[in-house]
Design brief:
With about 260 residues, the chain is of the alpha/beta class. It is built from 7 helices and 12 strands. The strands form 2 sheets. It has a 7-stranded mixed beta sheet. A hairpin with an 8-residue loop joins strand 2 and strand 3 (about 35-40). Helix 5 (about 185-195) runs antiparallel to helix 7. It is globular. The two termini are about 30 Å apart.
């Protein structure tokens, strides 16, 4: 259920038609990496700018949703891996937006992608227009991974929107160059922390985390919004999957004699 199935050797092979998720949250990303736009009423916030090679599609999608990219005020980066931050510098250079990232991942991106303008720690908040973005430190995938939460409305209801800022298990094995000592313990603790959050709308940082692509196409074709339905909320099932996958990674490292 929670796995990547589509290969996208070229940026345009990963094109996803943009769509509106809740009243002020839009999907404007590609298949490879999720990019969400939040209209705060006083400027736009982008969550994960993604690959540089996909930036032209992101900008086009922003226009298609009726917004001006020059109104972007902040770029929130969930963590410091290149697929999430590679487009930061050109997007910041174009729009003047400020880059936000977890303080423990700031050094990792500075050399290649430029120093962030703002670093955040566990419990910090960023207020932009009518929105307050709350950051929770959820290390494991990277040491500085931050999960982001905020409220939005849909059909007259106020809903909590958010995501796991870095769910990949690829960095949790000792054979990975991004591995750091204690990352699996951190990851499991992060999952346990996130399970206590009653999330209404799960937005992912990779499309295969919550079938962003499939749900988006269904929404555009039928008007049925599986992002907001409690029956199709993948938040807890996905976190359980992440926990199980981490435990399998630990066991595989033990079988290989790496532990």
């Amino acid at each position: 259920m929670f796995s990547a199935t589509r290969r996208t050797p070229n940026a345009w092979d990963g094109y996803i038609k943009p769509f509106r998720i809740t009243d002020n949250v839009y999907y404007v990303g590609a298949y490879q990496v999720c990019t969400h736009l939040v209209d705060t009423g006083d400027g736009l916030v982008i969550i994960d700018a993604g690959y540089q090679k996909c930036l032209y599609m992101v900008i086009d999608s922003i226009h298609r949703m009726g917004f001006d990219p020059f109104d972007i005020r902040y770029i929130i980066s969930t963590h410091g891996h290149y697929d999430h931050v590679e487009a930061n510098a050109p997007l910041r250079g174009l729009t003047g937006a400020k880059v936000v990232i977890g303080e423990k991942d700031a050094e990792a991106i500075t050399e290649k992608y430029g120093a962030p303008d703002i670093t955040v720690a566990d419990g910090d908040e960023l207020k932009v227009g009518a929105k307050t973005f709350r950051f929770i430190h959820t290390p494991g995938h990277t040491i500085g991974c931050m999960s982001t939460f905020f409220e939005d409305t849909y059909q007259g209801k106020t809903l909590l929107v958010g995501s796991f800022g870095g769910a990949g298990a690829n960095t949790l094995t000792r054979s990975c160059g991004d591995y750091y000592e204690g990352c699996t313990d951190d990851y499991l603790a992060s999952v346990d922390k996130l399970m206590k959050i009653p999330l209404d709308v799960f937005i992912a940082n990779h499309t295969w985390n919550n079938d962003t692509d499939g749900k988006g196409r269904k929404l555009l074709e039928t008007g049925v919004n599986d992002f907001v339905s409690p029956e199709t909320n993948d938040w807890i099932p996905f976190l359980q999957y992440c926990r199980d996958r981490c435990l399998r990674t630990i066991e595989k490292d033990r079988e290989k004699g790496l532990l």
